Amino acid sequence: MRIVAAIGGSILLQDYNAERFKEYAEILKELSEEHEIFVVVGGGKPARDYITAVRNLGAGEAKCDDIGIEVTRLNAKLLLLALGNTAYQKVPHNFGEALEYSASGKIIVMGGTEPAHSTDAVSAILAEYVQADLLINLTSVDGMYTKDPRKYDDAELIEEITATDMIEFIKGNDVKAGTYEFFDMTAIQMIKRSNLETVIANGNKPQNLVKAIKGEKIGTRVISE
């Protein structure tokens, strides 16, 4: 299978140590023996911190995005270090480069691409661009909930949902650079128009990536209309 995995920056970069990078690298290496793997890495807290500083300097949102993108690419380079020779040792700056580098047969790791596209959106566009069989979004919660589970005890996990229903769910969310929203509109529109098989799961448990690929019941699955 051709798989695109989006890994949140806050998942990988915990307390500025290398352990989570190493954990994911081992799993990705094993998966690459049977599957074609593309990884999109987010910026996490470091990106948000830099974006706050840039915004406080009076820069516009496009410049905030530009700085955030640079941080995602730094995170991508760290994962490349952990992966070693199993990965193509250059971070693609666009989708054409990602596809070109994949001809090497190695794991491809990238960050952001351009302003106004979160790494969630990048992963969905990449999955469409390379005609992936599966998109896996690894985030900081177990999947999509009826409300923010970190704030509300009565939040319920949504095990299955259509892309159309997801669009209705996230309408009106803030899309400023560096703000955390569960999933952005561009990402879900890509999933809808390409009918991408998508799983959203908790990335704090790296083995969830393996479970999602195996089709085990985990997180939230975006089903066909």
UniProtKB/TrEMBL annotation:
Gene3D superfamilies in UniProt: Acetylglutamate kinase-like
Intracellular or extracellular location(s): Cytoplasm
Entry binding sites for UMP: 43, 65, 113-119
EC number of the protein: 2.7.4.22
GO cellular component: cytoplasm
Transmembrane segments: none
Keywords on record: ATP-binding, Cytoplasm, Kinase, Nucleotide-binding, Pyrimidine biosynthesis, Transferase
Reactions performed catalytically: UMP + ATP = UDP + ADP
UniProt key word Nucleotide-binding: yes
Activity: how regulated: Inhibited by UTP.
Domain Aspartate/glutamate/uridylate kinase positions: 1-202
Pfam family, any one: AA_kinase
Annotated residues for binding of ATP: 9-10, 44, 48, 139, 145, 148
InterPro entries: AceGlu_kinase-like_sf (IPR036393), Asp/Glu/Uridylate_kinase (IPR001048), Uridylate_kinase (IPR011817), Uridylate_kinase_arch/spir (IPR011818)
Gene Ontology molecular function: ATP binding; UMP kinase activity
A biological process from GO: UDP biosynthetic process
Biological or metabolic pathway of the protein: Pyrimidine metabolism; CTP biosynthesis via de novo pathway; UDP from UMP (UMPK route): step 1/1
Superkingdom assignment: Archaea
Subunit structure: Homohexamer.
Family statement: Belongs to the UMP kinase family.
Role according to the record: Catalyzes the reversible phosphorylation of UMP to UDP.
The name this protein goes by in its record: Uridylate kinase
Organism name: Methanobrevibacter olleyae
Phylogenetic placement of the source organism: Archaea, Methanobacteriati, Methanobacteriota, Methanomada group, Methanobacteria
